[in-house]
Request: fold
Amino acid sequence: MSTIGIIANPASGKDIRRFVSHATVMNNYEKVNIIERIILGAQELGVTKVYIMPDSFDMGYKVIKNLSLSKKMIAEIEVLDFELSKSPEDTETAAKLMEEMGMGCVVVLGGDGTNRLVAKHLKKVPMIGVSTGTNNAYPKMIEGTIVGMAAAAVAADKIDCMKECQRDKIIEIGKNGEWIDMALMDLVISDEVFIGSKAIWDIKHIKEIIVSKCHPATIGFSAVVGVHKIIRECDDFGGKISLNTGDYKFVAPISAGVMTDCVSSGIELIELNKVIEWEAPFRGIIAVDGEREIAFRQGDQMKFRISRSGPINVDVNKAIEHAQKAGFFKL
Reply:
């Protein structure tokens, strides 16, 4: 039996950056439509069972109703059964269950933050990120039908993920002697002291940015480093810059429609597995993939390390190319 999992965050695409930038709103009805297209693409290529994360908007049940009424549902669709917390914990719970159940592939609808939560728990199951959030440096904007086709190819073992799919780099975070968290794309050290709305956007409070990969053609804080240097997933290094110090002036797209003037002292490249130790000289917050998560006090001993121990990330185009060569689409 070929199975895939779908995790769709009902809160993605709706945070405070709608008020401080020009980001669009991604409503949940459109996410339902995307999920339907993923399933329609996947079931035609052999996926027989689809598991969907439960959520407060009941997206999974709406998908089942719509596909049943249209008489287009071939695969069996099941919404996972667990008590909702109506918080990011639901995303993590679903990811843990899908890893334990051995899904053939997991598709994630959300932004960088949602994909990060899933990536924390997927070690063996490959994942595909679909952009439905605000800052989307990690997930890509891809038609749902195509995503379903790629997920089906991976679930059917038409792709040797250990050879054809690369394990992502991540930024590991330690505090006072213990490794406590991770970021997929970027880590931001800020002198703000409250987590509040979680989303981070005010450049004047940012002291350091560490990235696992970066490109100027992305939105968010990885782009701040990306305008200095392009660091790709295949590169065995990451990068770090200090902001609001130095004499290098530049502009970067930190959010949708927001080009911000910045000052830095240049970029430092960081080799994989090198531990960066940092004693906090002030009280502040660390934001991971655009969201404030980790508070620290002056004197806390922090450490950071870029490693290739993240999730198995499926390149959709490459997956479909390999599937085509293997005759996957032949009737």
Notes: The two ends are 19 Å apart (CA to CA). The first strand starts at residue 3 and ends at 8. The longest helix spans residues 28-43.
